[in-house]
Write a structure and sequence with these properties.
By secondary structure, this protein is of the alpha+beta class. It has a domain of about 30 residues. It contains 7 helices and 5 strands. Helix 6 runs parallel beside helix 7. The longest helix has about 45 residues. It is elongated, with a radius of gyration of 33 Å. The N and C termini lie far apart (about 90 Å).
Length: about 210
Amino acid sequence: MDPFLPKFDPSAQSVIVPFFFMHEGEECVRVQIAGETRFGPVFRAKDLWVRDGLEEITYAMRWPDQYAQFKDGKSQTADGTALEEAPFLNPSRISELRMLKIYSVEALANLDDRNIPKLGGKGYELKSLAQQYLQKRQETGANDKVVEMQRELAELRAMLSAQIVQPVSNEGEYTRLREDIKAKTGKYPVGNPSLETLQRISSELTEAA
């Protein structure tokens, strides 16, 4: 992390929101941090940032989606879940959050405690609601995946059952036709022909007799 950024863990990328712009012919990025209304360091897009203390990449590479939106002349969007999706936030509260540079539910859920008072008397409640909302959505998504896997498993079992039962139900007819063809030609059919093929061969031999 940049040495002069606030000393809290921005593990969720949505806590830090970049904004690319042109300044004196240079591509620059302002690093906007949730809850920090007076702090927004600016870097050149080509400046280097150390990722995980190992690899140096440019700020443009650090935030490729927002940089691409900037290059295409589109509105730059924050990562994470849009505030409008949270059922516990009304339009007025959303406007207040955006003034505090809080642009996503994840950013609210990970807001540093020292910035909570800026949300007013219900600041901790809002942060808790954001965390509960994300946790519930994650659990719901996991349950949906389990249901989908169970459905696919049931379909596979049905297909497998059909494949197993079909040959068994026709086993007697299959054997009879092989024996019939051997009796007429002196040898069994080559390979493992299907039941339909055996029926056709047997019928042709009967007609030729």
